[in-house]
Structure formats: structure tokens, C-alpha cells
Design brief:
395 residues; alpha/beta; 6-stranded parallel β-sheet; 13 strands; disordered N terminus
């Protein structure tokens, strides 16, 4: 946050001691195969790597099976990973749905558990579910706001266990697809993949002390997400264009994707292009969070957005539309404002309220940090998976 709201020494003082790396659960090491179609730089793929590392660091034998090479997260998966990485051989065909030799590889690896991540991996889990003689326990995961195809639904219905990343996701499966498995379904929230407890990135002048006569920096709004139609950054641009002329603000829209150019054109059309920054895809957005004041999100579809978790980890209050699992990432009227979907007037009102009240931003931001650490740490996510996998393999 800007120096007007919080100093770096205050942030350091509020950080709890670093947690010990040991896990509270003692168990026999499991042989675990995690499936992922392609390591693009999306939230699910980042969670895949985090789960693989967490389980491997907890002493389990983890194999990450990726259908094709060429993803932007490939270097992270290859370098110094505690798990074993396997790429399937697609030859000249490069597509997310093709998984040649998957069954043969699983037979050779002889896993105790197979955990698919993402749409295509879960579709293949739908094929694996047909084999009633499989020697491993098969999970299916649901972490998307998009419609799901038949094979994906088959996996969710017939795998040994269903794991969703929000309670809302389970409700949606029951209401939209009539998949209701109260005794064999679990919710494991996304873990925050970045370290906001023991490391503070260099945030440049954002936290530097100011002289009394220095003009305060503009209010900094931030959104970090892929530019896809359902993310609706263009709606956010339009809302921000209605902020009072007397308010000095800027908006950073970090990320890349097919709708980025349309957002830039809309900013030009509304004559606010000088207020909106498009830095592209950021390898590490923590510096951006610490230099910001409010996290804003106007998506039409979500599962459980990692952006809102990370923003709160860094002490940002949130203004976001109530879609899918968004309501489970923060506490309305305590760590931010949850806005009825597409109610632009209510969104603008809430944004103005936080924008004009630094004390309220600080209050919400402190509560946001505590809430995120309590509910979305990697340690709690890994522990939840270990408990679930142990229960499956010992039953």
C-alpha cells in the first residue's frame, strides 16, 4: 500500500513468525500421479505445481504427468522440483486433449492415487473411471466456472472421490448437473502460491516516506487476471471511467489474453487511457499488490480466484462481483464489499466508499490479511490433501 496508509515497518511488525515446514500428519509415503494437460500460466496450473510440491515435500512420491510440452510454467516444473515430471509424447500434434500412452505410463508408475487437474485431465479421468479393476484410487476435481463436457461429468460422477475448491462449486454441480455426492466429496480451498509471510518484495517508491508538502500518489486499483471474455476487464474499465473527476486514481490491469486489445481500445474511447496501465503477464505480481490500495474484480465466471486470495494476503481490501466461488474468498463488509452480479451502480458506490476513506481501507486490509492467512495457506491445502488421500488409501 502507499505510505499514506501503511509503512513497511508496520507490515513487517504485523507478520507472524514463519511456520515450521513440518506437517502435522504422519503417514506412510504414497505414490501419487497428478495429471495436467498443459502447463499454461493459469490459476489451475499454478495450483497443480503447488500441490505437487507440497505433497512431495511432505514425503510422498509424486509424479506430475503433463500431456504436452511448451507451457509457460514448464521451466518452473523442470527446475529443482521435488517431484518427478513426465511429458507424454504427442509427436507433431500439439493439443490439450491428446494423452498418448497415459494408461501405459500409469501402469508402469503403479500409483496409489491419480489426481487430475483441469478440464482435459478430468476428461481423461472420465475414461479411466470406466475401468472398475484399476488398482489405484481415482479422484476428480472441479475448479471451473465454465460448462463441462460429458467425460468430465462422468469422472465427477464415478471417481472414488470428488474434490471441489469451493462450497459453491459443489452446489453448482448438484443444481446444474445433478451430481450430488455428500459422502464422497470434499472442499479443499486453493492455497496461496506466493510467499507473503517471510518475503517482502522491493516495491520501489510505493512505500517510501513522503515529505509533508509532497503531492500524494493517486489511488491505485489493481486487477490481476487472464484477459478472457468471462473475466470482463472491459466492464471494470467502464466502471472506473465513472469515478468522480476530483478523485486521483489509476488502474493496473495485469495479465494477457485475447480481450486485452479491446480493453485498451475502450480506455482510449473513454479518454482514460492515461490512467490505466497494462503491464502484461507478470511473473511475480507481489510488488504490484504492495504498491496498490484496492483489489477490484468484475468477472462473470469464477471458481475460486487466486487473485483475490493473493491480494488479501498482501493486505488489500476487495471489491468484487458475487459470482460462483468469489464470496468464499473474503468476508463481505469486513475485508471488502461483495457486489450483486452486474450491479455497476453498487460496485461504483462501494469503490468510492473505500477510495475516499483511508482508515476504512486500512481496517479492511488488516482483516483481509488475517482472513487469507487463516483460510488459504499452502500448508493448510497440503494438509487437507494428505488427510483425504490417507483416508482413501486406508479405507
Amino acid at each position: 500500500m502507499h505510505a499514506s496508509a501503511k509503512s513497511q515497518s508496520q507490515i513487517l511488525a504485523q507478520r507472524p513468525p514463519s511456520p515450521k515446514s513440518s506437517h502435522a500428519i504422519n503417514s506412510q509415503p504414497l505414490n501419487i500421479a497428478i495429471l495436467q494437460d498443459h502447463l499454461r500460466n493459469g490459476g489451475t496450473e499454478q495450483q497443480t505445481l503447488a500441490i505437487a510440491r507440497g505433497l512431495a515435500n511432505a514425503g510422498h512420491h509424486v509424479h506430475l504427468v503433463v500431456f504436452r510440452r511448451g507451457g509457460s510454467l514448464d521451466p518452473q516444473a523442470i527446475q529443482s522440483s521435488p517431484f518427478t515430471l513426465h511429458y507424454l509424447n504427442q509427436g507433431l500434434l500439439k493439443t490439450d486433449w491428446f494423452a498418448p500412452g497415459l494408461k501405459k505410463l500409469l501402469a508402469r508408475l503403479a500409483p496409489d492415487v491419480v489426481l487430475p487437474m483441469g478440464r482435459m485431465a478430468n476428461c481423461h479421468a472420465g475414461l479411466l473411471a470406466h475401468d472398475k479393476r484399476r488398482p489405484y484410487k481415482l479422484l476428480a476435481t472441479f475448479r471451473t466456472g465454465r460448462a463441462i463436457p460429458y467425460l468430465y461429468r462422468h469422472a465427477l460422477q464415478h471417481a472414488d472421490q470428488l474434490v471441489a475448491n469451493s462450497q459453491e462449486a459443489l452446489r453448482r454441480l448438484a443444481s446444474e448437473y445433478r451430481i450430488h455426492r455428500p459422502d464422497t466429496s470434499s472442499v479443499i480451498y486453493n492455497g496461496c502460491i506466493r510467499d507473503f509471510e517471510t518475503q517482502i518484495p522491493n516495491v520501489g517508491s510505493g512505500l517510501a516516506p513522503r515529505s509533508p508538502n509532497q503531492v500524494p500518489p493517486p489511488l491505485h486499483l489493481v486487477s490481476v487476471s487472464m484477459f478472457r471474455p468471462q473475466k470482463q476487464q472491459i466492464r471494470l474499465v467502464r466502471i472506473c471511467s465513472q469515478l468522480p473527476e476530483t478523485l486521483d486514481w489509476k488502474l493496473t490491469l495485469a495479465g494477457d489474453g485475447p480481450t486485452r486489445a479491446a480493453c485498451q481500445a475502450e480506455a482510449q474511447k473513454l479518454r482514460i487511457a492515461d490512467r490505466i496501465h497494462f503491464p502484461g503477464l507478470l511473473k511475480d505480481p507481489r510488488s504490484l499488490y504492495f504498491d496498490a490500495d484496492i483489489a477490484v474484480h468484475t468477472s462473470d465466471q469464477e471458481s475460486l480466484p487466486n487473485f483475490l486470495v493473493e491480494a488479501q494476503m498482501s493486505g488489500l481490501p476487495v471489491v468484487a462481483y458475487d459470482v460462483n466461488g468469489v464470496s468464499e474468498t473474503f468476508v463481505d463488509n469486513e475485508t471488502g464489499y461483495l457486489i450483486p452480479h452486474r450491479d455497476e451502480t453498487a460496485f461504483l458506490t462501494a469503490l468510492e466508499k473505500l477510495a475516499t476513506d483511508p482508515a476504512l481501507r486500512l481496517q479492511f486490509g488488516d482483516a483481509a490479511r488475517l482472513h487469507a492467512r487463516k483460510n488459504f495457506s499452502l500448508k493448510s491445502q497440503t494438509t487437507a490433501y494428505i488427510r483425504l488421500l490417507n483416508s482413501l488409501t486406508t479405507s
